[in-house]
């Protein structure tokens, strides 16, 4: 008799744990009450001094050291495997653990270095974590579905099981990266929290009362606790930016067609009104740039039919760095920022509003211009965007659950109530309307050249990623602050700004919620529960402006002291 | 009582003619039997020497002269208006005639030149014709539908009627172009022939037994007879390349996202599995380059949300021109071409096969490599591609016909028999399959680096545009030679090669057709009927390779003596 879904989930959950060496197990796991914040000193207590030094070094500096042979790939890999193993026990952030393969590939890199006296590539010996949509040889991809265990995307006998690799995995390997784990996702991928019937719930390392975010929540938690120096997530409605923001990380949502999604598992694959994109999350901006540049050096447009031939554009980056260089003769030239304090649909909570003030004041103090962003209605954009999630009436998602009989968790259960698929004519109507709205927004953005003192259009728009610093479990009720960016296919980079301080970020008792959803979001904020959580914002740029936005985000991070 | 659709069509047809000055009317229109070929001396007989000189000058040389003030914009505009007026009477190739507005804008350009001593832009005083999908101020867009007369895309009271301009129209004006007419299309746009209930049938000027092609057939006919130096068509399944090929013209089907389609009328707008693209047709390759470069200089990505920020890339062009420069020290470096003699579904007719031999022999004689192109199945690609035309079961098209009650002409009547729309899940399945097929084709193309002696991948693929040099009316039975390019979103440039010679291009009496469609195509070729027709081929390159493919097409045109 076939095992129940509960049994299969348990076996998988135990297999993940079993892949963690015994000497890396935590004997007495602390409760949330005992230990809300498990980052920093707490987790470092389980590591050697060298392991702490390695895992608290950012990707740029790691490859500096491995490229000179100062650090061996193997010791770097071991240190991150150890910290990732601890992270998973504290946070439930891993779906796949393949430390042995990682050590083996790290040794091969060390052997290459020993023989040739030079690194294999720009990511020589850099551990990179991957969201559990990437296919890696010898490793499963469950995407959190019990029914996908032991299959290739729910199918058996495809010949691809544990053999097929995603295009970006091939590129990362050839750049010298070391792959060692795949991170947790919410089943369906369609949630700002990360939970499934296999690993349970992924918690926020900085404040375990809260979610690590989703859908790249495992990445957020793992990198947040420095169990990975850099990792890749995906984003169709905020899924890179939400976990980046909730874990105090930088994260980029590139525009579609910039980085290769080819050969990855996905939800509702083939829905091409709003495409999911792939991008990195990391504790430093330089790490994002390193990864984006490295991937583009592989000419992904020759291997992914949806990627545009658009190499890394130094000139775009230089345009910003030159403007911002105080030693440049043109340094009178400044940037102009738009700011979204609220979208008028859901009011951001106090810590988010304070973060906006911090950024605005810091930029103004440097002589930059900040103007109110008054774009065409975000509500109109969101009305269309959210339809795309319902085009197939949940057919794809329901099919994945039906494979095992497991239930949809509450965060995504609304998909089970959808009944009628959109027809072709209904879909094209959404496509046409979205194109019109993109055009309106584009012309608004063009019009800001008249508004700004720089004579240029607004360079970047500062805005919330979500109404809260992070959501409380089962309380992620609004995606509007991220999804407008996907609908318009803009470039967005998340920048960490501050932390919740319960003494400052008090509830505004006089606030009158605009409607039920606004009330839900308002009421979910509690300074006691949120105290200490990361608070981050996003910087939104126009389509395909990755170089420019990375440069601006690095600068903004600097002026707010990150 | 409302007029019948017949009356409304007749009124519109007569209004088009009425916009042609009386002195430009042809008294005794010759029958096809009397005058098969109305190009060259025949049409020149109606024009002054100066008008002939102007209208037989290509776009590059026209703007050379207008930029120096050697020719006035007004005299250039008048000459092309005159020749276009003659063309329409012989071929039924115009939907909208706005010569007065053209003369007025030409005069404004001349006044600017007189005042400032320099041209307004790179297209100063260049007449440009437009397919009747472009919206131009003060001018209707019917797209061949009786029901669209007096409306904005079939709707009234939108406030856009005769006011709204397409983005490219705005750009052409600001570049200095003179707009003077809009050209005929088949109703629905979904045909390789051009016919509708307003203007009737658009004939091929070189051989009026044949179609001018479609759906940009009015452009093909008008430019073919030199009533326009350059014009813009659109292509979702061959609609730029077919009329370019049938009229002995160069024409480029760029990849999606290169040139701005924003604000144009379209069929089945919002179907975004395979997008229609816009591109120029002209008698010389240099004219295409001039227009593509000029449009890109306008940064269309700031005004069309679907255009990628990809300026004209000189380096891409230089890569080819350097390789082909005999004075270059590396001139041992040559190109490698793939050749598609047949797709195995429909066998090309004798003139097409001879054209392929001409090109292959010419290239080999210059030392280039030509290898057989053995790609993944085109049939699989086409099976998916043709589904996209039927996604909405003809809902959009039927709606346009229902506005007036006019009938679908036989070339497109199969749309009336469609009943069931595709569901969202069915559409995504097509999207996923097409992406897989693109990936396979991409990897095949990558693999040709091993095949070629150049060490590079195949630079361009030589292939037919259609099984025949041009189709006979109501005999356009196969779109496979063009549509695979749309499905893969490749760049393609049509190159004129030769003309049908009934003495050489005889029917192969021993040929055994593979199936009924192949038989239909085989039997539609008749050397007597086809004698003198243009024979052209396409050169297909990878996605977004416009600069490279224009450079290669120019070279191929040169070596075949065009």
TrEMBL record, chains A, B:
EC number, as in UniProt: 3.5.1.4
Occurrences of domain Amidase (ranges): 75-550
Catalytic residues (UniProt): 131, 215, 239
Keywords tagged on the record: Hydrolase
Binding site residues for substrate: 189, 215, 236-239
Record SUPFAM superfamilies: Amidase signature (AS) enzymes
Catalysis performed (reactions): a monocarboxylic acid amide + H2O = a monocarboxylate + NH4(+)
Any GO molecular function: amidase activity
Hydrolase among keywords: yes
TM stretches of this protein: none
UniProt similarity note: Belongs to the amidase family.
Protein's name in the database: amidase
């Amino acid at each position: 008799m076939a095992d129940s879904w509960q049994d299969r989930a348990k076996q998988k959950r135990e297999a993940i744990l079993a892949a963690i060496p015994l000497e890396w197990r935590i004997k007495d796991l602390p409760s949330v009450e005992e230990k809300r914040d498990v980052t920093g000193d707490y987790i470092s207590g389980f590591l050697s001094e060298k392991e702490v030094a390695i895992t608290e070094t950012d990707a740029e500096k790691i490859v500096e050291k491995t490229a000179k042979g100062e650090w061996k790939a193997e010791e770097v890999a071991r240190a991150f495997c150890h910290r990732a193993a601890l992270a998973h026990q504290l946070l439930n952030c891993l779906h796949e653990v393949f430390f042995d393969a990682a050590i083996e590939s790290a040794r091969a890199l060390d052997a290459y270095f020993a023989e040739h006296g030079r690194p294999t590539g720009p990511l020589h010996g850099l551990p990179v974590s991957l969201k559990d949509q990437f296919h890696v040889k010898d490793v499963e991809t469950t995407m959190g579905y019990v029914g996908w265990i032991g299959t290739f995307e729910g199918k058996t006998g495809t010949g691809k099981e544990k053999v097929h690799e995603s295009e970006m995995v091939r590129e990362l390997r050839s750049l010298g990266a070391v792959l060692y784990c795949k991170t947790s996702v919410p089943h369906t991928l369609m949630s700002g929290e990360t939970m499934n019937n296999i690993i349970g719930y992924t918690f926020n390392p900085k404040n375990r009362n809260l979610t690590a975010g989703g859908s790249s929540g495992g990445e957020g938690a793992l990198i947040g606790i420095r169990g990975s120096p850099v990792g890749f997530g995906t984003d169709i409605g905020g899924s890179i930016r939400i976990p980046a923001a909730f874990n105090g990380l930088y994260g980029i949502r590139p525009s579609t067609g910039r980085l290769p999604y080819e050969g990855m598992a996905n939800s509702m694959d083939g829905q091409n009104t709003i495409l999911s994109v792939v991008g990195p999350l990391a504790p430093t901006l330089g790490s994002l740039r390193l990864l984006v540049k490295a991937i583009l050096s592989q000419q992904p447009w020759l291997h992914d039919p949806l990627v545009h031939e658009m190499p890394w554009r130094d000139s775009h980056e230089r345009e910003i760095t030159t403007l911002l260089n105080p030693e440049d003769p043109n340094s009178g030239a400044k940037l102009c920022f738009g700011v979204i304090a609220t979208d008028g649909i859901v009011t951001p909570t106090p810590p988010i509003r304070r973060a906006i003030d911090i950024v605005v004041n810091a930029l103004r103090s440097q002589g930059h211009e900040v103007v109110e962003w008054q774009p065409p209605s975000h509500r109109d954009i969101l009305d269309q965007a959210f339809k795309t999630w319902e085009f197939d009436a949940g057919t794809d998602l329901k099919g994945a659950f039906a494979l095992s009989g497991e239930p949809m968790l509450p965060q995504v259960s609304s998909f089970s109530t959808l009944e009628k698929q959109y027809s072709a004519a209904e879909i094209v109507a959404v496509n046409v309307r979205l194109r019109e709205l993109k055009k309106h927004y584009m012309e608004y953005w063009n019009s800001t050249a008249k508004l700004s003192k720089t004579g240029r259009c607004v360079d970047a728009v500062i805005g919330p990623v979500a109404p809260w610093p992070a959501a409380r479990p089962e309380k992620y009720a609004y995606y509007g602050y991220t999804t407008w960016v996907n609908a318009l296919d803009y470039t967005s980079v998340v920048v960490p700004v501050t932390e919740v301080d319960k003494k400052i970020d008090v509830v505004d008792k006089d606030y009158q919620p605009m409607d039920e959803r606004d009330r839900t979001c308002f009421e979910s904020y509690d300074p006691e529960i949120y105290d200490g959580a990361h608070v981050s914002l996003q910087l939104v740029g126009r389509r395909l402006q990755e170089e420019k936005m990375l440069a601006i985000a690095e600068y903004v991070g600097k002026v707010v002291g990150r």
